[in-house]
What does this fold into?
Amino acid sequence: MVVQTYQPASNETLGQFVDLLFQRLFFAHDAMPVVLSTYENDVAANATIEVNGEHLSAAAFLEVVKRFHATWLVKLSTTEDLVVVPLDPAARTGVVAQRSKFTITNKADGKVSEHVAVTIVKVEEKEGRRVMSSYVETSNFVETQA
It folds into this structure.
């Protein structure tokens, strides 16, 4: 069953695309079908991923996202576009650097912590759809293995 994650507006900016992508991937609490559909539809199968210097395959990134949802509740505080560089005249593709502040609550013990992440996302078009083709994140959130 395919879950439609959203219908993009015709005038959706690059920054809005990235905002909505992250909202669906990381902030869709108890909505794993939305997370999985977003990953399938909006993340390129060959996307390059780097988180705090660790290179991940797109498949490994999906496992991190699943584990993230299983362990944490996250609430977005703010997102700010730092730099947006369109790569085509219509500004459908490009590179977006953002800074996000968010609160994370551990589902097991209820511990709450504040975090900041800076991301750089490359957006390309594949088969008429925008997709994330590259993702670099640096953040003060470090997931520990159980």
